[in-house]
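Hi support team,

I'm opening this ticket because the web form for multi-chain structure prediction keeps timing out on my end. I have pasted the exact lines I submitted so you can reproduce it. The total is 363 residues across two entries, so I didn't expect it to be a heavy job. Is there a limit I'm missing, or should I split the entries? Thanks in advance, R.K.
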Amino acid sequence: MKKEAAKKASQNFLNGVPILLVLKLLSEKEMYGYEIVRAIHEKTGRSLSFPEGSIYPTLHVLEEDGHVKSREKAHNGRTRLYYAITPSGTKKLEQLTGEWRKVFQGVHLALDAGKAGLS
Amino acid sequence: MTGREWKRLGVILAARGMSAGRVGRVLGELDDHARDIREELEARGLGPAEAGVMALRRMGDTETLADNIFRGYARRTLWGRHPVFLSIVLPFLSVALVTVAAVMVGNLFFGPLLKALEVLGLGTGFPVVRALCMGLFTLGRYVSTAIAAWFLLRAAKKRVLEMKWAFLTAGVTALLGFLLFPYLRVFPPEVAGKIVSGSFAVGLGLSAAFFQSADHWTRFLIPLVLFAAFYSGNLKASWRKRAG
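Hello R.K., no limit was hit. The queue was backed up. Here is the completed structure from your submission:
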């Protein structure tokens, strides 16, 4: 029961991370789905990865919310769907980055306070 | 994945409630994804056959892929994260909103409509006006039920909610339609210069008489018929999946 609750809390805590990372990557250049998955894997020092296929729902919802837009582009004789950030996505990225930094600093402070208390 | 497996994945996604357009898009992107994995593995020196096998293994089986995709959509929406709660609460909220909207529309447009009829020399007699009021009220009961169900089912489909939750939403809306008893009283004008006076009330309850009432059964059936219309393709896919 405790394990379930911890898993759920962790899921909620990490829920916004894919959106944050996707928007951050797309703010640098337009990318296609697999490229985004690879970039997240590489740029997070291989500590984060997504189950295959799960990036597309995130991209579709971001597109429906107007934060990213997609366009087809020819590549090696086939067409790929490339995603790019929109002005609304840039604002969302700023907001999420601010929130994430606050959480990160808070957790960092709490962990350091724990260390200080132990010593 | 083989063509047959892609087709099976499409049937699974549709059977769980995804629209045909979205199934096509997801399958197209997943196919590209699998090709990209294969190309990357080939670039690392693997032979085409081996790269193909590895790419398939990484993509996973169709059921796992479908789970990943639906979980991905569910995590991005409030309704997806709390499907039971919102599938029950949203129909209640929609009934409240539709009631308020009905009163507002009545206040805004019904007076001017009666005035216009009076100017045109139509519907000036109280019996005619009352008949008109009651006719529009009956029509409004069905239209408002349909509007509430339509908005909810459209939102469920757009947000890729699993079909079972959309069915629960339609079921609760249907039940509310059956249990609601909107009531309109129309009487001669109480205020000088007005054409008609009236009062509007909405109640919720259960009576044996409801089971004999075509009005209650109609409001019960409207959300279910709309559900069948919205999800007809998905219901067919669900049947195909069960049939193997």
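A quick check on our side: Chain B has a mean pLDDT of 87. Let us know if the file doesn't open in your viewer.
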